[in-house]
């Protein structure tokens, strides 16, 4: 099997083989590609770039909720429901890793009982591995691989605890948020910003006491959210997102405007018995149909690509600048110079970034000049 | 590509699947191993109880694990392990997966399992450090 070599040209050949095998439907190749993506291994960027043209057809569904809400069981039943109607399914389940050893027990697979042994459900556990920013990149790249493989539906499952997990689930086309009946914690969680990202809310364990009240509370909160979004829409300006979005992207408020046209649904399920799963599938389908018919799907995809570009650029720059900091004796030494009163953080930051800024500015000046100074590049002109 | 080069030297965790195959319902040993592997810094996927060989193969292939540890206490190892090995071969995953077996395996059955490609068999009372050390030393490096 290809995939053992790491040196330059071999890497190219390996990627050729892997991409061909993945597109031909080999599970092993798909698994290996996701491993390379997850490890941020040499050549993984080229791999994802090559798979990108083959992706984009899958419906990506994000499922999030607090620990114990029943996400894994629900995802299992959801995958089975999709399989029943003939769709192929990919699942990426993100689990936190132990902060002590870096190791982890990835237990979501235990719940995948309904579709066990069915290779058309490709289930992959991913550990958070203690990294924050890289996780959402790795997850979205894994989704690209599953999408390119030809999965009709890709489900991403994360604990809705931290910002990075919210970021991951937000990259889905349709987001389902699980809520347990009568749990104050979940209401807190929703206040913490998950309410804004849900397209469908699932009150799971609906056979428990308090389900009706939780549904009522949710609908009340969603109603308030709609009013809030509507007000922002009329304001039509930069402050419409003052509710907590610190992003300055214009794209973000576009998404919020458009989302106001989708009335989030509240669905009751009992994942252990499968009750309500059909309703959930209907609600997810309805949202997918809305995305298609309204054009919001395209807007969301564009927004997603924009965020991805930003994330990649930011990550690459961080690496470049970290290396530069190291070349300058490391951040600790610089910090010590600040502590001893020799310099200040702003001067240090300016000194580190200045060459980069000059380089980029210089390039921009060159670009502007290109049309007028075409003779300076005779190679192109003489042809 | 500089980012790729940057990541090159990074250690990645050893990925393991701890699998309970067949009908026996005793998973205490599997749980203990899973926890110990986690504490050793491995990424451990746990299959849950009562898995068929095909399900184990599916999990091992999809999760792309370096190590497959099968726990069998039922005595059915002679029929179950070959099925897992065949399945791994069918998916081209046998050659670079370290296959280990834990549980109660009579001495006379061990040579046959080893011939099948089982790298090690850990019986009851094996010190945890021994198992972890074995995995660290023998997990395939294939990055």
Automatic annotation (TrEMBL), chain A:
Matches recorded under InterPro entries: AAA+_ATPase, GTPase/Isobutyryl-CoA_mutase, GTPase_ArgK, P-loop_NTPase
One MF term in the entry's GO annotations: kinase activity
Cross-referenced SMART domains: AAA
Family matches, as CDD domains: MMAA-like
Keywords: Chaperone, GTP-binding, Hydrolase, Kinase, Nucleotide-binding, Transferase
Segments of this protein annotated with the region Disordered: 228-263, 359-383
Domain AAA+ ATPase: 57-228
Keyword Protease assigned: no
Key word Metal-binding present: no
SUPFAM superfamilies associated with the record: P-loop containing nucleoside triphosphate hydrolases
Basic and acidic residues bias: start-end ranges: 246-255, 359-369
Top-level division of the source organism's lineage: Archaea
Transmembrane segments: none
One Pfam entry name: MeaB
Family designation: Belongs to the SIMIBI class G3E GTPase family. ArgK/MeaB subfamily.
Name used for this protein in its record: LAO/AO transport system kinase
UniProtKB/TrEMBL annotation, chain B:
Keyword Isomerase: yes
Swiss-Prot/TrEMBL cofactor(s): adenosylcob(III)alamin
B12-binding domain sequence ranges: 13-142
Keywords from the named record: Cobalamin, Cobalt, Isomerase, Metal-binding
Statement: the UniProt record of this protein carries the keyword Metal-binding: yes
Segment forming the signal sequence: none
Gene3D superfamilies for the chain: Cobalamin-binding domain
GO MF entry, a single one: isomerase activity
Family named by the database record: Belongs to the methylamine corrinoid protein family.
Protein name: Methylmalonyl-CoA mutase, C-terminal domain
UniProt source species: Halobellus clavatus
Lineage: Archaea, Methanobacteriati, Methanobacteriota, Stenosarchaea group, Halobacteria
């Amino acid at each position: 099997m290809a995939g053992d070599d790491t040196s330059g040209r071999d890497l190219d050949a390996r990627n050729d083989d892997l991409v061909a095998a993945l597109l031909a439907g080999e599970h092993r190749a798909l698994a290996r590609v996701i491993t390379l993506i997850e490890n941020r291994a040499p050549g993984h960027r080229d791999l994802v770039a090559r798979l990108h043209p083959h992706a984009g057809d899958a419906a990506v569904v994000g499922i999030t909720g607090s620990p114990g809400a029943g996400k894994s069981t629900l995802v299992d039943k959801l995958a089975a429901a999709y399989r029943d109607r003939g769709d192929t399914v990919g699942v990426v389940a993100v689990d936190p890793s132990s902060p002590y050893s870096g190791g982890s027990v990835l237990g979501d697979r235990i719940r995948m009982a309904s579709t066990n042994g069915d290779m058309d459900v490709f289930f992959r556990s991913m550990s958070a591995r203690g990294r924050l920013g890289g996780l959402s990149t790795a997850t979205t790249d894994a989704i690209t691989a599953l999408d390119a493989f030809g999965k009709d539906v890709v489900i991403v499952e994360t604990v809705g605890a931290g910002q990075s997990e919210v970021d991951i689930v937000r990259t889905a086309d349709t987001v389902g948020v699980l809520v347990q009946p009568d749990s104050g914690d979940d209401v807190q969680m929703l206040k913490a910003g998950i309410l804004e990202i849900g397209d469908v809310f699932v009150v799971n364990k609906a056979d428990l006491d308090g389900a009706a009240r939780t549904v009522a509370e949710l609908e009340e909160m969603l109603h308030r959210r709609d009013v809030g979004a509507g007000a922002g829409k009329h304001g039509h300006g930069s402050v419409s997102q003052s509710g907590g979005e610190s992003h300055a992207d214009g794209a973000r408020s576009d998404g919020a405007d458009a989302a106001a046209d989708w009335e989030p649904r509240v669905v009751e399920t009992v994942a252990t018995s499968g009750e309500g799963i059909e309703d959930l599938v209907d609600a997810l389908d309805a949202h997918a149909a809305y995305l298609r018919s309204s054009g919001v799907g395209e807007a969301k995809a564009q927004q997603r690509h924009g965020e991805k570009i930003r994330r990649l650029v930011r990550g690459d720059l961080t690496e470049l600048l970290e290396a530069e900091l190291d070349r300058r004796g490391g951040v600790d030494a610089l910090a010590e110079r600040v502590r001893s009163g020799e310099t200040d953080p702003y001067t240090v930051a300016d000194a580190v970034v200045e060459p980069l800024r000059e380089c980029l500015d210089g390039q921009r000046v060159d670009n502007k000049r290109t049309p007028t100074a075409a003779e300076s590049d005779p190679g192109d002109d003489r042809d | 590509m500089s980012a790729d080069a940057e990541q090159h030297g990074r250690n990645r965790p050893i990925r393991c699947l701890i699998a309970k195959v067949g009908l026996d319902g005793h998973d205490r040993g599997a749980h203990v191993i899973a926890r110990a592997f986690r504490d050793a810094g491995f990424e451990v996927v746990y299959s849950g109880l009562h898995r068929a060989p095909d399900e184990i193969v599916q999990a091992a292939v999809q999760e792309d694990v370096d190590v497959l540890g099968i726990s069998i206490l039922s005595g059915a190892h002679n029929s179950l392990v070959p099925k897992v090995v065949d399945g791994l071969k069918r998916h081209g995953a046998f050659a670079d997966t370290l296959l280990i077996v834990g549980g109660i395996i009579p001495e006379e059955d061990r040579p046959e399992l080893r011939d099948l490609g089982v790298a090690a068999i850990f019986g009851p009372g094996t010190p945890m450090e021994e198992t972890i050390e074995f995995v660290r030393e023998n997990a395939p490096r294939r990055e």
